[in-house]
Amino acid sequence: MKKKILITLLAASAALAMTACGGSENSGKVVVYNWGEYIDPETLTAFEEETGIQVIYDEFETNEIMYPKIEAGASQYDVVCPSDYMIKKMIDNDLLEEIDTTKLENYENIGKQYLKEAESFDPGNKYSVPYCWGTVGILYNKTMVSDPVDSWSILWNEKYKDSILMQDSVRDAFMVAEKLNGCSMNTTDAFELEKAKNMLIKQKPLVQAYVVDQVRDKMIGGEAALGVIYSGEAIFTQRENPDLEYVIPKEGTNVWIDGWVIPKNAPNKENAMKFIDYMCRADVALKNFEFITYSTPNVAAQQMIEDGDIKDSPIAFPDLSQYKNLETYSYLGEEADALYNDLWKEVKSE
How far apart are CA 241 and CA 141, in angstroms? Predict the structure, then answer.
């Protein structure tokens, strides 16, 4: 797809440019580390043209891949886009620079409800600026699934063996089992985690693959019947394949927020502020939303959406009050992190 090719080319050029960046001050550059396929390339080009600042762009697949690179400090990024719980971990480990939001002209475009939600992992909104938000649910193909899809339990239905896609992410995988067990997705209880691990091991023979971005492509192509997916990806898949439906299971799910942050060792902090402010501009936020289809917390951009179906979409902008047991991931501490990772390794090695 054109979208994927554009981002891949950006990432490839970034790998070469990073070597030239080094650790010295480069006032004419900003080095951005973001999720794969999570920005409109045209907004990067426009930023360069408007400011004269060169964007060096790199990508990651999961928070757990991103974090060690920031912690090590070997690659000096100026702007990074982690998820809620990872932002809290980075704050706790003194890896982030405080952001003076009074210097961001477009910060007021971010809705107060999203800033309030972000305080659960960034008290006082001192270190992050919300970029995208959404939910995690089940995407299914109506022509391939004959059972009602309203519960995480369908992902354990043997009828769909080799046609189930799970997220290759420790927290997202465990969330599914924890919610089905009636537990918090932020549990650190050893018994509850062991139970969730055993459920995932029991499910594993039914799973076609543990993937991240590929859930979207496989579901569009009819290669699987059911997949755990982020809501923004679900919107895109429905445009490409009308047989696909997205649901938030009755047991509850994760409501997540990804936000821009500035690492403490960023060599170009002033340019980082300019980049974040630019991304908060209403027209830029709208352009990114239309390209990546992940829900924007930019209320000024929301008002500019012309497509009524998208503007009122229960996937893009759901009424969360109608759902129960919704949670945001919390950073659980080093000990719990290690436990989750060890249990996930047991699941993957079975």
Answer: 9
**Residues 84, 328: contact at Cβ < 8 Å?**
yes
What are the φ/ψ torsions at residue 145 (nearest 5 degrees)?
Answer: -115, 120
pLDDT given at position 16: 39
Conformation bin of residue 112: beta by default, left when phi > 0, alpha when psi is -120 to 50: alpha
Each residue of 70-105: pLDDT tens digit? Answer: 999 877 999 999 999 999 999 999 999 999 999 999
User: Considering only CA atoms, which of 228, 235, 236 is closest in space to residue 312?
Assistant: 235
For the chain, state the CA radius of gyration.
Answer: 20
The answer to whether the beta carbons of residues 261 and 65 sit under 8 Å apart is: no
Tokens of 166: 């799970």
Cα–Cα distances (Å) from 13 to 19, 21, 67, 68, 320, in that order, read 11, 12, 22, 22, 40
Main-chain phi, psi angles of 113, to 5 degrees: -65, -35
| Rounded distance between C-alpha atoms, residue 175 and residue 143, angstroms | 27
Terminal CA-CA length for the chain: 34
**Rounded Cα–Cα distance for residues 185 and 107 (Å):** 31
Confidence (pTM): 0.84
